[in-house]
Structures are given as C-alpha cells and as structure tokens.
C-alpha cells in the first residue's frame, strides 16, 4: 500500500509531511519510557510484516499490522510506524523519503483512530476484547486503503478507481490482520497483561 515517489502532487506531499510531524510529536509526547522496548519490538514487527507478501490472483499484498500497533500503543503507534516506514524506504525502496509523510499518515492515523473507536471493547475481557482487537486490525487496513485513495485523488489519479482496487486487493489482508490482532491481544491478555495496560487504561 506504499505510494511511490513521483505520484503525488507537491501540496499533498506538504500536507502529509505536516500531519506526520504533528502525529509523531503527539506520539512521542505520549510515549512512556518504560514502554520504549515494547514500541521498538512492535515497530520491528511492522517492518518485517511488509516482507511477507500474499499472492492474490495476478497481484499480491502484504501484512501491515498497523491495527495491532494501534491496539497496543495508541498514539505511540505513530512514531513506531514512521520508523518502520523509514527503514523500508531506505533499505528496500518501498515508498520513498519524499512520500514518507503521506505513507506514515495513511498507516498511522487509522491505527490511532481504531484504538480510540474500539477502546471500550479493548478495555473489556474475553470475547469483547477479542472483537475489539479484530476490529482494530480489520478497519485500520480499510481506513489506510481509503486514505491512500484520497491522497491519489487529490493528485488527480482518480479516487474511485484507486479505492476499488485497494480495497478489493486488501480485503483478505483485512480479515487476516483482524484475526492476527485478535489472537495476539488475547494471548497477551493471558500471558503479559501489563502490555495491555497503559494506553488502554487511560
């Protein structure tokens, strides 16, 4: 779902950079020092997930895991995702430095939004918590696809065509990420419940 260099217009790139800077600043401000290791591990998971490509007909898609980061980190997911995207751009030329801000917004803001939308469920126990985690994984990918399509529309690339393609290709990924996020959160609730405290408890 990375947008490549040379696709977006200068105003879209500028707005993306500003919004990414704001999100990163808020995320760093909300980041507790004692959760720094957790953020680093989840950022690494986000980075590695992009290397796992799933064939879908003639095309392919890859896991994103932004919903999992959102469910566990809240606003701190923003700097974690930005770091992962930066490494992807530098090491594997996924996206690029010029579009880093837009790509970060497309991935991180949905993660944060889903955290707040489904926080009441994440605060619950048992099946309700699992449902909230699934929704975080599913809808964060859906919102990311729509935001990417919006960025393309404002660069005259065609919103509806882009939205249809992005949503259709990533629909299996949405389901997979919802299931993965639900399983991880349920597992952590039993083995490391302290990782679910912090942002979720606020």
UniProtKB/TrEMBL annotation:
Main location: membrane
Taxonomy, superkingdom: Bacteria
Keywords: Cell membrane, Membrane, Transmembrane, Transmembrane helix, Transport
InterPro entries for the chain: CbiM/NikMN
Pfam family, one: CbiM
Location(s) in or outside the cell: Cell membrane
Gene3D superfamilies: 1.10.1760.20
Transmembrane segments annotated in the record for this chain: 36-56, 68-91, 97-118, 130-152, 158-189
Gene Ontology BP terms: transition metal ion transport
Membrane topology label: Multi-pass membrane protein
CC per GO annotation: plasma membrane
PANTHER family hit by this protein: METAL TRANSPORT PROTEIN HI_1621-RELATED
Name of the protein in question: Cobalt transporter CbiM
Organism: Desulfolutivibrio sulfodismutans
High-level lineage: Bacteria, Pseudomonadati, Thermodesulfobacteriota, Desulfovibrionia, Desulfovibrionales
């Amino acid at each position: 779902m990375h947008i490549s260099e040379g696709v977006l217009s200068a105003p879209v790139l500028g707005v993306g950079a500003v919004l990414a800077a704001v999100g990163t600043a808020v995320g760093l401000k909300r980041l507790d020092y004692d959760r720094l290791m957790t953020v680093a591990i989840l950022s690494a998971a986000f980075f590695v997930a992009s290397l796992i490509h799933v064939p879908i007909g003639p095309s392919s898609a890859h896991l994103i895991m932004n919903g999992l980061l959102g469910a566990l980190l809240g606003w701190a997911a923003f700097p974690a995702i930005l770091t992962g995207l930066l490494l992807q751009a530098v090491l594997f030329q996924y996206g690029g430095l010029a579009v880093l801000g837009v790509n970060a917004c497309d991935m991180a803001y949905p993660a944060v939004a889903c955290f707040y939308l489904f926080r009441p469920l994440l605060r619950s126990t048992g099946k309700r918590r699992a449902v909230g985690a699934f929704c975080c994984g599913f809808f964060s990918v859906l919102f990311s696809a729509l935001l990417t399509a919006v960025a393309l529309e404002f660069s005259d690339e065609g919103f509806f065509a882009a939205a249809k393609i992005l949503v259709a290709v990533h629909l299996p990924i949405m389901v997979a990420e919802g299931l993965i996020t639900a399983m991880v959160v349920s597992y952590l609730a039993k083995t490391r419940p302290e990782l679910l405290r912090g942002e979720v408890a606020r």
